[in-house]
């Protein structure tokens, strides 16, 4: 009799949990859409949205200390705010945004939730691509890039966004970052071609190869630019 009573209670709890998860997911999606809309508007008329953006920045700073206490949590809202602020940072004076991001990566990169780490690395690379990082933070940017490459090689991050961030390093002002990105893409492209030529009779890894091949295909334009950058790098090395 007791078991008959407990089952509907458990079912109700499961339903409530599922409903809560769905509501949280929708809230996260709505928040991302909201940030994308504000980002679009800021690019057109930044001064009109200074107050709204300042509120987002204040929210980011307030959340930062809480996130540090438990970096293993996903903290999606905080992560999305970091990327959002990095994208529009050139329009406002976020003087310590880079300090928040670099400090977080420097101290918690190995303990961080994978989703959160990916977003923080992305925000740092965006800041670097806009020349908004000070010279003494280049080391952090380099380490962040190496983290992304390592995770790609381990088949953890093999999506288009990851490749785009790494590829953007080929056009970076930092010689070291440019070098790491260029040689990574050269090595990856050569490996893809080798695997494609030697895997006609091997169907075990077809799905994984198709995914990686698709990623490589979409970045041909970046790789073409990277090849030109590589030649320039080699010329500079010869001069030195």
UniProtKB/TrEMBL annotation:
- Cellular component terms (Gene Ontology): nucleolus
Q: Which keywords does this chain's UniProt record carry?
A: Hydrolase, Nucleus, Protein transport, Ribosome biogenesis, Transport
One Gene Ontology biological process:
ribosomal large subunit export from nucleus
* Bias type Acidic residues, positions: 193-205
Alphabetically, the GO molecular function entries are:
hydrolase activity
Subcellular location per UniProt equals: Nucleus, Nucleolus
Domain spans labelled SDA1 N-terminal: 131-239
Question: Looking at the Swiss-Prot or TrEMBL record, what is one Pfam family this protein matches?
Answer: SDA1_HEAT
**Predominant location:** nucleus
List all Basic and acidic residues biased stretches.
9-27, 224-240
Disordered: annotated span: 1-27, 193-240
Superkingdom of origin: Eukaryota
Record function comment: Required for 60S pre-ribosomal subunits export to the cytoplasm.
- What is stated as this protein's family in its record? Belongs to the SDA1 family.
Question: What name does this protein carry?
Answer: Protein SDA1
Please report the organism this UniProt entry assigns to the protein: Ichthyophthirius multifiliis (White spot disease agent)
